[in-house]
Amino acid sequence: MKSDIEIAQEAVLEPVARVAEGLGMTQDDLELYGKYKAKLTNEYIEGLKGRPEGKLILVTAINPTPAGEGKTTVTVGLGQAFGKLGKKAVIALREPSLGPCFGIKGGAAGGGYAQVVPMEDLNLHFTGDLHAVTSANNLLAALLDNHIHQGNGLQIDTRQIVWKRCEDMNDRALRNIVVGLGNKADGFVREDHFVITVASEIMAILCLAEDMKDLKERLGRIIVAYNYAGEPVTASDLQAVGAMAALLKDAMKPNLIQTLEHTPALVHGGPFANIAHGCNSVRATKAALRMADYCITEAGFGADLGAEKFFDIKCRMAGLKPDAVVLVATVRALKYNGGVPAAELSHENLEALERGIVNLEKHMENLQKYDVPVVVTLNSFVTDTEAEVDYVRKFCERKGCEFALSQVWEKGGEGGTELARKVIETLEGRESHFHVLYDDAASLEEKILTVARDIYGAGGVSFSAAARKQLQRLTELGFGRLPVCMAKNQYSLSDDPSLLGRPEGFDMKVREVYVSAGAGFVVVLTGDVMTMPGLPGRPAANRIDVSDEGVITGLF
Questions:
Q1: Which of 197, 202, 188, 184 minimizes the C-alpha distance to 145?
Q2: Has 394 been annotated as catalytic?
Q3: Of 94, 221, 253, 286, which is the active-site residue?
Q4: Which end of the chain, N or C, is less packed with Cβ atoms under 10 Å?
Q5: Alpha helix (H) ranges present in 369-442?
Q6: Active-site residue (options: 82, 272, 310, 381)
Q7: pLDDT per position in the chain (556 positions), as tens?
């Protein structure tokens, strides 16, 4: 059986300009990064604004497990399947982070015969967008420390600096550091921190900004510290906005590549869903909606994180209205939720499937709360039995959700036509009445409670003393109307990653709350979730190599 990277490396790619021709684009609409990658020009994006919008389809999933779910694989395969059916569709994905690529998760290009390519380029540097975000973030950090060193005219309280440095790599040793050691010229000694680039507020801003004007306004609102009077000090106060925007000028443009079947894919932005808002850029999504009749996009991790933030943050801010949701699961993952060890998932086990399907049930119920039609799909494995698939199908139909089998990993677009037809049938037969989960006017505490109870299934929320004080302060500063961005582990509906299935009535623990004023949301840290992940015992990096001929191996 061929690996994902072997399949991708054997593929014969079309020049990206030819892929663009299928969308009615010319080479003047592209900024080429070699033969197979390009950015959309600002002029082309502006010209799209007069076009009608197509249908918006969100792909999400159950909570991730070691058994695999294949959300990106299904997204890519569904785009390929629409092409097989003669439908004009563009998929809109996030860019991978180097942290997971070299850590535990691997790449983010899909899998099998449902991938976006060039796979190695996408997973390793791509067009430099994440490096631009990293540079803009760290420029602001450098300007902040330089301002203090040069006399501190803004009277910044060095005990209340909240801006962190970042890098796009899992490096736990940088979570908590001390800077300024050495000579007087080396700056003031203080505690500092790093987050991974995809958790940086600038990544969120890049993905939520509509245009350069909006980007600069958002960058200016970033709070970097508080002064001795307790007032916010912003990036605008440090006169950092123009230089940061210059670094992000090209990163603002969505990237165009292709699937293995030469259908178009916009890949742009990459915030994590467990510690950020987990969606690709608003610019890419809105462009895709006007470039084709269907935009197929995804949100990170399970529906409790990615879909909730897609709806309550991205759609709220950008005025997007999804027309349908595809919820991805696998028989193997459901049996894992039912208590079956990973080594035994290939054996038929209807009892475990019955126990584990409650995780899928909760995600179905959650999505239905937004009044958007839901189609459940099983990402097929060769070990799935007819009885297991039939059990899931009947369960979904009893719960009022459409169902279709996906075989895109094995068969590419052809294996996704059943799902594509079901999605089209749903779009044509059922109307979406999308609405967000909570009102802007609700208090921050009410918003947190609503997500914890309605989406996670918690019985209540326990706030640390520090979190309560932070909530009060943010409300007093005028941030009470912002949506909340919940930072939670992805493996469980709860804040405890060991609780599989459908935990209920648990106590959700909130330890810290802070505002991302430029992004426009309040971040809520729960449980033990980290904004700078660490590497696992056996990092994926140990398996990656380059041959003497320059062929990359071990990347998946």
A1: 188
A2: no
A3: 94
A4: N
A5: 386-398, 408-411, 417-429
A6: 381
A7: 788 788 888 889 999 999 999 999 999 999 999 999 999 999 999 999 989 999 999 999 999 998 878 999 999 999 999 999 999 999 999 999 999 889 876 666 888 899 999 989 999 999 999 999 999 999 999 999 999 999 999 999 999 999 999 999 999 999 999 999 989 899 889 999 999 999 999 999 999 999 999 999 999 999 999 999 999 999 999 999 999 999 999 999 999 999 999 999 999 999 988 889 999 999 999 999 999 999 999 998 999 999 999 999 999 999 999 999 999 999 999 999 999 998 999 999 999 999 999 999 999 999 999 999 999 999 998 899 999 999 999 999 999 899 999 999 999 999 999 999 999 999 999 999 999 999 999 999 999 999 999 999 999 999 999 999 999 999 999 999 999 999 999 999 999 999 999 999 999 999 999 999 999 999 999 999 989 999 999 998 998 999 999 988 888 7
Active site residue 55: no
Query: For residues 378 and 401, is the Cβ–Cβ distance under 8 A?
Result: no
Could you say which of 163, 301, 463, 556 is catalytic? Answer: 301
Which residue, 119, 454, 525, 481, is CA-closest to 308?
A: 454
Q: Which two tokens stand for residue 550?
A: 């320059």
In the set 73, 75, 285, 531, the catalytic residue is 73
94 is catalytic: yes
Active-site option among 84, 87, 88, 105:
105
Tell me, yes or no, if 72 is annotated catalytic. no
Query: Is 335 part of the annotated catalytic residue set?
Result: no
Please identify which of the residues 102, 395, 403, 409 carries the catalytic annotation. 409
User: Side chain identity at 280, as an amino acid letter?
Assistant: N
Burial 155-190 (b: 16+ CB within 10 A, else e): ebbeeebebbbbbbbbeeebeeeebbeeeeeebeee
Give the C-alpha separation, 316 to 331, whole Å: 33
Is there a catalytic annotation at residue 163? Answer: no
